[in-house]
Design brief:
By secondary structure, this protein is α/β, with parallel strands linked by helices. It has two domains: 127 residues, Glycogen Phosphorylase B (Rossmann fold, 3-Layer(aba) Sandwich); 178 residues, Glycogen Phosphorylase B (Rossmann fold), CATH 3.40.50. The protein has 15 helices and 13 strands. Strands 9-8-7-10-11-12 form a six-stranded parallel sheet, sandwiched between helices. It starts with a strand and ends in a 10-residue tail after the last strand.
Length: 407
């Protein structure tokens, strides 16, 4: 079950699409604001950080209230109504909700309680324990109580790594918590060998976060290697497909890498995948925060499917991403400028010797496909004894796609 999708859903699955009310856009319209523009654009305010200004707090206070517990709350009534109709007309053995948004879990709880159906809550990102959450203290207090009340009714919880599972277990002390990592679509890994870029190209696709997922160390390493004559500036290129943030352009200018680092806007997913596959190296940016040690980004699994070597910057020495790269031999995790310069030099020498950086081995990465995820979800269903027979039916509530884990 999902809000209306931008395209046709996969015909192999029974996908129920429902209307969705954008409550934040409606609030902006009532206040005489442009519903299509962010508060930052219209007020010149930014999301509050460690020391937010008064304008920051005032600008975002209404949004903290209107979008509680998230911006998808306008989907709730439509999804519950559609779920009512489905549960009245068909036999449903289990409900599976997957966040973000957390509204998915609130919908699932309402249906599971009403119809006495077992329910598994899958948290690809944690709820109130999410290190990227920066709400005000009052909302954090209210939301933690909401999480406890909501997930307290679930039969089991699922998340993506053992560190995050440990965090969940400490909060939900009487709930079984299982680990099922993210993965990639096997179809994304089925492609003819691409023609690689002529230059020594390093590609990043997706959003950036100033001070959290920041490429500055890469810029410093490239500047040093160019200055030392190890890398020819005419043969190297760094590409960003995604965010076009002003601070990124400032970092490029301050590093004297104009002409080497190129910033593009967001591109369609198929084009982003192609840019990954043709690149010599792929850049993965992590946040050096102990709370993120158990966080996998969806990007790392896309990169695994692309089959190109990955350079991961930042993050904790205990990061699950570091373990993943070591296990799959898909790239290198670097935590210091010296390490990064050594890794870049190694790859550049390979590139200069053969004209290309060798691809990674896909055999080790295959255990992180969606097929493996589905197998593990089936195991969780068995463990909580909610698959009594072979033809069990699952209802999945998810804001993006209902076909990720059901078939």
């Amino acid at each position: 079950m999902t809000p209306v999708l931008p395209g046709e859903p996969d015909s192999r699955f029974h996908v129920i699409q429902t209307p969705y009310d954008d409550v934040v856009a409606l609030w902006k319209k009532r206040m005489g604001l442009n519903p299509k523009k962010s508060l930052n654009e219209q007020f010149g305010a930014s999301r509050p950080k460690n020391q937010p200004s008064i304008m920051d707090c005032l600008a975002y206070l209404p949004n903290e209230i209107i979008s509680y517990p998230d911006g998808m709350k306008g989907w709730y009534k439509h999804a519950v109504h559609a779920g009512d109709e489905l549960l009245k007309s068909e036999r449903i053995d289990v409900i599976l909700s997957s966040s973000y948004p957390v509204t998915c879990h609130i919908i699932a709880k309402a249906l599971a309680e009403k119809y006495h159906v077992p329910w598994i809550a899958d948290l690809r990102d944690l709820w109130t324990q999410n290190p990227y959450s920066n709400h005000c203290a009052l909302r954090r207090f209210a939301e933690k109580r909401l999480e406890l009340r909501t997930l307290g009714k679930a039969s089991a919880l699922v998340t993506v790594s053992k560190p995050l599972a440990d965090d969940l277990s400490r909060l939900h002390i009487h709930k079984p918590v299982y680990v099922i990592t993210n993965g990639f679509d096997p179809e994304d890994a089925c492609f003819d060998p691409p023609e690689l870029t002529e230059k020594f190209t390093i590609t990043y696709t997706g959003a950036l976060y100033d001070g959290k997922r920041d490429p500055l160390m890469l810029f410093e390493a490239l500047r040093n290697l160019i200055t030392d004559g190890i890398i020819d500036p005419d043969r190297v290129e760094v590409r960003f497909f995604g965010s076009q943030d002003s601070w990124l352009f400032d970092e490029i200018r301050d590093s004297n890498l104009n002409g080497i680092v190129r910033v593009f806007g967001f591109v369609p997913r198929n084009q982003a995948l192609q840019k990954q596959r043709e690149s010599q190296l792929l850049l993965l940016l992590l946040w050096n925060n102990p709370q993120e040690r158990g966080v996998y980004t969806g990007k790392v699994f896309e990169y695994l499917a692309a089959g190109r070597p990955i350079i991961a910057l930042g993050g904790s020495e205990e990061s699950v991403v570091k373990d993943l790269l070591n296990e799959t031999q898909a790239g290198h995790y670097t935590s210091s400028l010296e390490d990064l310069e050594a890794v870049l030099s190694k790859y550049y020498l390979e590139y200069m010797g053969t004209g290309a950086v060798p691809p990674t081995k896909k055999s080790a990465a295959s255990r992180y496909s969606h097929l493996e995820m589905a197998r593990k979800f089936a195991g969780v269903l068995d463990k909580v004894q909610i698959m009594p027979h072979q033809h069990s039916t699952t209802v999945a509530a998810h804001s993006d796609s209902a076909q990720k884990f059901t078939q």
